[in-house]
């Protein structure tokens, strides 16, 4: 497949700036892989497509307030710092992106907070992803993290094109999020409300959780036409033996296994053994899935409507079939579906 095959015209107006008033009341497009039929529903109708003992797999990663604004020493120039991951707890080392990058050199000090309460020093600018900062802070690690996160804001994707607001702290986070480490919310999970999860439980639909810390690689532009030459950024993940036993049992009993989001699908496929079953895994994945691809565990996928040329769109097209998914996207554009993390959802079954 070529990169240009995933191009389509998306206007600013079609990208959701804000989430639906209620999590489970976004629109839901249901795409039937076998027949090509497309239905238009409301998200909470999703349970009509599943039965007792079917399994939903969620990503329980938690987004942290990764976007900080500071000033450079001496010049006072405004600098945006995007926290990617903590490298060393004891030395307060963080892997970050800085903008504008050209103004930042090794040895520069950056000041954060109204009273410059947090100071960081640039100690490396040679990493592939950006810079390494050492935060200068006296106190425990817990106190440091608390102070750092108070300065940060919710890392909304750039395409949402507005400053983060107080409501985003809750809404750009899944209600079941618990393992901190993501800078990108697994958007398919944003549609699940407490009421919907309760209704799932009452119907006998079972839930399992894995962790994949979604990173900015999801939004990195692909700069090669030949997709086989694209390298994904690695993301940290954990698939427990308990989840593996649970999902493999459902598969062996011919139950539906629904991957809630492309991050879940990526994690599942990163752990599949030669016999088509999942195995436990703790580590990193840089798996890149695009058509054609043979999926062996999940029977259905929930996903939002993604940006043109994105790796998430490519994975959805691999699962649903390129022609069917691109046709569904064309219909979504004509029918006024909302795109992006705060937008509407698609169920492929």
TrEMBL record:
Pathway given in the UniProt record: tRNA modification; tRNA-queuosine biosynthesis
Gene Ontology MF terms: S-adenosylmethionine:tRNA ribosyltransferase-isomerase activity
Catalytic activity: 7-aminomethyl-7-carbaguanosine(34) in tRNA + S-adenosyl-L-methionine = epoxyqueuosine(34) in tRNA + adenine + L-methionine + 2 H(+)
Predominant place of localization: cytoplasm
GO biological process: tRNA queuosine(34) biosynthetic process
Pfam families: Queuosine_synth
Compartments in which it is found: Cytoplasm
Keyword Cytoplasm: yes
EC nos: 2.4.99.17
Alphabetic keyword roster: Cytoplasm, Isomerase, Queuosine biosynthesis, S-adenosyl-L-methionine, Transferase
Any one GO cellular component localisation term in the record: cytoplasm
Domain of life: Bacteria
Entry keyword Hydrolase: no
Role: Transfers and isomerizes the ribose moiety from AdoMet to the 7-aminomethyl group of 7-deazaguanine (preQ1-tRNA) to give epoxyqueuosine (oQ-tRNA).
Subunit relationships: Monomer.
Protein family membership: Belongs to the QueA family.
Name of the protein described by the UniProt record: S-adenosylmethionine:tRNA ribosyltransferase-isomerase
Gene: queA
